[in-house]
Automatic annotation (TrEMBL):
CATSPERE second N-terminal domain residues: 100-185
Signal peptide: 1-19
Membrane protein topology class: Single-pass type I membrane protein
Domain CATSPERE first N-terminal: 9-95
CATSPERE beta-propeller domain mapped to chain residues: 227-576
Name of the featured protein: Catsper channel auxiliary subunit epsilon
KW Glycoprotein (keyword) present: yes
Organism: Chinchilla lanigera
Lineage of source species: Eukaryota, Metazoa, Chordata, Craniata, Vertebrata
Organism domain of life: Eukaryota
Length: 950
């Protein structure tokens, strides 16, 4: 080869060369890359000559572009040798590991019982069959059967834990067809499931825990013959949308087809639309796509279309949406299942905007116009001469907030200013933010908010990525090692296609030619990653069920394929080359849940710990975002050992509000409720740190899953039958003219407890949530008979209970609130204790005390001893107990009021009976005479039949 030829070749390679190489292991998401693993190498291109690997790795066939190797422990430099071209070297870390085996699962849906049966087995990725490796197996492979059996014999038993609702599901005792079977209820909101086994070892190896998502099955809409493809304009990059709470559900729009999947592209189908709704040109003009559960929204020529299971519909004027002017649509990117909502019933799930108007979409395709730029201009105090238009919109990391970016310019020739307003759906307020960006007039920025406490976002145009961290105080452009922020200059002038952001703070910027840059949230520089995909491939990022990044490729023949991308290994390799190090060794915490409810009187104690080399002086920074309704205390603890410093930060969050005696209890409660975000981060970090921050939410308010019950009552342990009874008017509080007829509602009142009229009763109130019993309620409560009976009493007097002044009673409370229904006259909102001379008046302290708690020995009893049915409702009276309105109902049937025979009583009764007999005899003589006389002259009067009374 002559020198000129070589130069020509080199030039050609650098211009057209798309050679690159990849590696992979057999475990999903490169979970295990260890000395046991076969690491596959794959060179893509033509001029390959051989692999260059260190001696510590044994390679099968170093001359084959596709081969396998095993390595001993260490970081290994690996690269292919290619004729006339210098290929990139990767540094692959290989560890010895005690984890060799993985869990495999399949799911069967049982619609009759609304359950899902998960079959679980153990497999060894190094010996799995191809079905298992492709995650398409229905039954365990022979090797997995042996392995599973062996583990079962030594006592292994996988248990499914859910992350959100904290439930635990255990398998049946025996293996069935070499699998453990766990039955779970189908749920919509408890999607994250973890399979964990016991610490059982086989061949010095454990089984790795495994996380997956499981909900109600979502069916892919089948392709209908005769339906036509829908796509983006020719030459467009891929557009992608996944369900924030169930990312296995995704849709990809390419320039020739649209694809959907419900299992992270293991299986997929094409989305096609019926002919004659869209013109051919419109069918190929999708400019935005959104997936919300099984609804796909397409934006085509400024009009919104919805494709659901049944049909494709245009959402236009009839749905209160503009037609032809819509420029953008967006939905939430972060999944929050629990949060406190104070004011509204429904939160939006989609935002739609034109240049001048913003619309929110709710379930059932209801759309509402929220605001216009005219109103926003006033809000921002901008002079009316300038032009304000909507630039872009993104939901933030907060469950109830949305951010609007606005363009503002006066002459509108060279530059414009970008402003930001954040809307909180619950407080219904638009709040201008401390954020202004000067950009060229024609630049278009895409914002993405990170999952963070304070608003933090990145924005990108074609060439640069801007960041704005820590409440808009740290703003800039991500810098590269080349000393500038122009990513196009480092990627053959390609432009930014998309940016992937995940909940761990990884930010990966992908150029249209598949060159990628990495940066971590809160860092200011980006690292160029190794090439993974050639520049002609149409690709995009996705996130798997176990929250791992992967790529999807769309091929020209109209097929789509997922490919795993080992982001962390790739990053480690680049960092190894750049000698980048994380300033700390470890940053961890004990905060397992991202959301905590905090009820009155409760506190939340958590800790976070950072371990770093001595003399570097790192700290943990705590930021709290949200209304100021919580107190916060922290204490630090330092320890130095073996050259490392451990800094432990313990935090306590609590609310210090006293609700007793406040004037407007419910609005005071309302004021003190809300969502607080807490963000913890080390004072320094780098792109290579595995964890750079921790965000969690504290919901101060009522956990809707909380409820109370009276111990010993049930709704099912009795036969339900139609049953009416009558309450004598004399026993009713409000003294009606007639007796009250009541239908007993078994569903609501439950099974009554049967007592004799001589027994007394103190209900024991227990607090539960969906995971079971929390505590026996020790605070004050009151009860009332819901039909208004008052023929029961309390055995403690006010004096015995320690009252200094007259206590509140139902009687006095009803008099004070004549206009209110019985259940509203008395409660935590107006409770005043009687134990102080300062509150209330002296009075008759011999009256019964009508407030009960576990320890005051106050019971209800039935002074008249007659039989009857009582339906009581209980209400917690203590204003400092809970944000929830805790009440429950129980019923008591008083029966069998037969006095016990005693010698004295028996003779007394006999005497009385004899006396009665004699008097009846005497009386009847006179009565007879009377009747005889009357009946001679008057007709016989009607006899009345009396109804049985309870
Ligand atoms: C076990 O597998 C056999 C053969 O595939 C099948 O017929 C049988 O129904 C399975 N048993 C259960 C309980 O699933
Ligand atoms: C995905 O859709 C297919 C076909 O509609 C269905 O058989 C499967 O159960 C679905 N999977 C999930 C996880 O919902
Ligand atoms: C690019 O990569 C894809 C997928 O790996 C491959 O099918 C294709 O042939 C490659 N194209 C070129 C030009 O090498
Ligand atoms: C964020 O910035 C706003 C406006 O500058 C300020 O009012 C707010 O207190 C800041 N929040 C935090 C958590 O620092
Ligand atoms: C409790 O009841 C009050 C008054 O009826 C109401 O304003 C409040 O929203 C209720 N609280 C909850 C958590 O349901």
């Amino acid at each position: 080869m002559s020198p000129t030829q070589a130069v020509a070749l080199l030039l050609e390679l650098s211009c057209y060369g798309s050679a690159l190489w990849r590696y992979s292991s057999k475990s999903p998401h490169h979970h295990i890359v260890s000395t046991r693993s076969a690491i596959k190498l794959e060179y893509e291109g033509t001029l390959f000559s051989e692999w260059q690997v260190p001696e510590t790795c044994s390679i099968k066939d170093k001359r084959s572009p596709k081969t396998e190797m095993h390595c001993s422990e260490g970081v290994h430099a690996i690269k292919p040798i290619v004729t006339g071209q210098e290929e990139e070297e990767r540094y692959l870390p290989v560890d010895t590991t005690y984890i060799c085996f993985l869990w495999y699962y399949t799911v069967r849906n049982m619609f009759e019982t609304l359950t899902q049966v998960v079959s679980i087995w153990v497999y060894d990725p190094e010996y799995a069959d191809s079905e298992e490796l492709l995650w398409k197996a229905e039954t365990p492979s022979p090797h997995s059967r042996v392995l599973t059996n062996h583990f079962a014999i030594v006592g292994q038993k996988p248990i499914i834990y859910t992350t959100i609702r904290r439930k635990i599901y255990v398998p049946d005792d025996k293996l069935i067809n070499w699998t453990w079977r766990v039955t779970l209820p189908m749920t919509r909101d408890d999607v994250i499931k973890n399979i964990k086994g016991s610490q059982v070892i086989f061949q010095d190896c454990f089984i790795s825990d495994f996380t997956f998502l499981l909900t109600f099955p979502v069916y892919l809409q089948p392709e209908v013959p005769g339906f036509l493809p829908i796509s983006s304009p020719a030459g467009s990059q891929l557009m992608l949308s996944w369900d924030a709470c169930f990312p296995s559900l995704a849709v990809v729009v390419a320039d020739m087809e649209t694809f959907q999947t419900n299992d992270s592209f293991c299986t997929w189908s094409r989305v096609r639309v019926p002919p004659n709704i869209l013109s051919d040109a419109a069918r190929h003009s999708v400019s935005a796509v959104l997936l919300l559960h099984d609804n796909i929204y397409f934006l085509i020529n400024g009009v919104l279309y919805l494709k659901d299971i049944k049909k494709l519909t245009k959402l236009g004027r009839t749905n209160h949406l503009p037609e032809g002017e819509i420029i953008g649509i967006t939905s939430r990117r972060w999944c929050w299942i629990k949060y406190i909502v104070k004011n509204i019933k429904l939160i939006s799930n989609i935002a739609v905007w034109t240049k001048n108007e913003i619309y929110f979409g709710y379930t059932e395709d209801k759309f509402v116009k929220m605001i216009t730029t005219t109103e926003l201009k006033k809000l921002l105090n901008l002079p009316p001469t300038g032009t304000l238009t909507i630039h872009n919109i993104d939901y933030t990391g907060h469950p109830l907030e949305l951010a609007v970016l606005l363009n503002y310019c006066i002459t509108c020739t060279d530059t414009k200013k970008i402003y930001m307003v954040i809307y909180n759906e619950d407080s219904m307020k638009w709040v201008p933010q401390d954020f202004i960006l000067d950009v060229p007039i024609d630049s278009f920025l895409v914002p993405r908010f990170l999952l963070s406490g304070m608003p933090e976002l990145i924005l990108w145009d074609k060439h640069k990525v801007y960041y704005s961290y820590q409440n808009f105080t740290t703003i800039g452009v991500l810098q590269t090692s080349a000393g500038h922020g122009n990513l196009s200059a480092l990627s053959n002038d390609s432009i930014i296609h998309d940016v992937y952001i995940d909940s761990q703070g990884n930010i990966v910027t992908k150029m249209e030619n598949n060159i990628m840059f990495y940066s971590k949230s809160n860092t200011k520089d980006a690292l160029k990653l190794h090439l993974w995909t050639n520049d002609t491939m149409k690709s995009s990022f996705c996130v798997s069920a176990s929250a791992q990044i992967y790529l999807v490729y769309v091929f020209d023949d109209g097929t789509i394929q997922p490919q795993e991308y080992p982001l962390i290994l790739e990053l480690q390799s680049v960092a190894f080359r750049m000698k980048e190090k994380c300033p700390y060794v470890m940053f961890h915490d004990n905060i397992s849940e991202s959301f905590h409810f905090l009820d009155k009187g409760k506190s939340l104690k958590v800790w976070a710990e950072i371990i770093y080399p001595e003399n570097t002086g790192l700290d943990i920074i705590v930021k709290v975002y949200g209304p100021q309704i919580l107190e916060y205390e922290e204490s630090s603890h330092y320890e130095i050992a073996l050259g490392y410093c451990t800094n432990t930060l313990s935090m306590t969050f609590y609310s210090n509000v006293n609700y007793e005696g406040v004037d407007d209890y419910f609005s005071f409660e309302h004021k003190n409720m809300g969502n607080i975000f807490v963000q913890l981060r080390p004072s320094q970090h780098a792109n290579v740190c595995p964890v750079t921050q921790k965000v969690f939410q504290i919901g101060v308010g009522c956990d809707p899953q909380k409820f109370i019950e009276v111990k010993g009552f049930s709704t099912i342990a009795c036969a339900h039958h139609e049953f009416f009874y009558e309450i004598d008017k004399a026993y009713l509080r409000h003294q009606p003219p007639k007796n009250l007829k009541v239908r007993y509602d078994w569903e609501k009142f439950g099974c009554p407890l049967r007592l004799t009229g001589h027994e007394k009763f103190q209900p024991l109130i227990q607090l539960f949530d969906d995971s079971g019993h929390i505590e026996d309620v020790a605070v004050n409560f009151i009860l009332w008979e819901i039909h208004g009976r008052n023929d029961y009493s309390y055995n403690n007097s006010m004096k015995q209970s320690g009252c200094l002044n007259e206590a509140q009673t139902w009687k006095t409370m009803i008099e004070l609130h004549k206009d209110l229904p019985l259940e509203d006259v008395w409660g935590p909102e107006n409770y005043r204790p009687c134990f102080s001379y300062a509150i209330g008046k002296p009075g008759d302290l011999d009256q019964p005390y009508e407030i009960i708690n576990i320890s005051n020995k106050n019971h209800i009893f039935w002074p008249l001893h007659h039989s009857g049915m009582y339906v009581f409702r209980v209400k917690i009276l203590d204003p400092n107990y809970s944000f929830c309105n805790l009440t429950t109902t129980f019923a008591i049937e008083i029966s069998g009021v037969i006095p016990r025979p005693s010698g004295y009583l028996v003779s007394a009764i006999v005497f009385v009976l004899m006396l009665m007999f004699l008097s009846v005899l005497v009386l009847s003589y006179f009565q007879y005479m009377n009747l005889y006389k009357r009946n001679i002259y008057n007709p016989y009067y009607k006899t009345q039949i009396k109804q049985k009374k309870y």
